[in-house]
Amino acid sequence: DGGITQSPKYLFRKEGQNVTLSCEQNLNHDAMYWYRQDPGQGLRLIYYSQIVNDFQKGDIAEGYSVSREKKESFPLTVTSAQKNPTAFYLCASSTTRVRDRGYNDYGYTFGSGTRLTVV
Amino acid sequence: QQPVQSPQAVILREGEDAVINCSSSKALYSVHWYRQKHGEAPVFLMILLKGGEQKGHDKISASFNEKKQQSSLYLTASQLSYSGTYFCGTVTGTASKLTFGTGTRLQVTL
Questions:
Q1: Which DSSP symbol is given to B94?
Q2: A to B CB pairs, distance under 8 Å
Q3: What does the alpha-carbon distance between residue B73 and residue B21 come to, in Å, rounded to a whole number?
Q4: What ranges in chain A are assigned the alpha helix state H?
Q5: Is residue A107 over pLDDT 70?
């Protein structure tokens, strides 16, 4: 079955260390996204990519970096410049296809998330 | 800006109905609705496109008022399985990126 795999599920890092979160999808989706979720809050967009080798900053990109070298993969690096990195990180993907009537009404598919704790 | 959802939280008895609202300050291209259970990934419920359509499946439906830049999610005859946090996500431009609301926590009790 197709889906999105995020690994690891839990990650602990010391303050000042960079850490990379993995996101792989086998849905053949063009677009991929990274969101951050803090307790009791909504999802905030970090970065997104609509095509290989291209990505755009979201609303809270400072302290994060991404790459999109393959369609299936969109890893997120949380750098030491991110002031408050402890959070639940969600990766998502979507198709950019449009239906015959000229619109895209496909939803996002989310991975199961990585809970990052920086100590 | 983030769309605003109301109410922030609601507790229902099984079988009761609920309405969750999502309001944006920007013109909307489409609105998505997702449900997230604690510690899990959000799950896609439905999408509404501009044109003022209404959609639904099973006992969950939604409407989209393009002129008011608002969407509402209707849950009828709620079941225990409906418990979770509901998020609306809005698309305001040609890029497919979603901006999510702050969420509405819904708890269904016996």
A1: S
A2: 59
A3: 6
A4: none
A5: yes
Of residues A42, A105, A107, nearest to B2 (C-beta) = A42
Are B32 and A107 in contact (CB < 8 Å)? yes
- Cα(A52)–Cα(A31) distance, integer angstroms: 9
pLDDT tens readout for residues B75-98: 999 999 999 999 999 988 766 789
CB contact at 8 A, A97 and A106: yes
Residue in the block written with tokens 């896609």? B44
Report yes or no: B26 and B90 within 8 Å, Cβ to Cβ. Answer: yes
Q: What is the pLDDT of residue B37?
A: 94
Contact A71, A55 (CB under 8 A): no
Q: How far apart are the first and last CA of chain A?
A: 36
**Phi then psi for A112, rounded to 5 degrees?**
-85, -5
Q: Mutate which of A9, A43, A54, A105 to test chain B, going by most B C-beta atoms within 10 A?
A: A43
CA Rg, chain A, in Å?
14
A11-52 confidence digits (pLDDT tens): 999 998 999 999 999 999 999 999 999 987 789 999 999 999
Q: Which residue has the tokens 């290989």?
A: A52
pLDDT at B70 over 60: yes
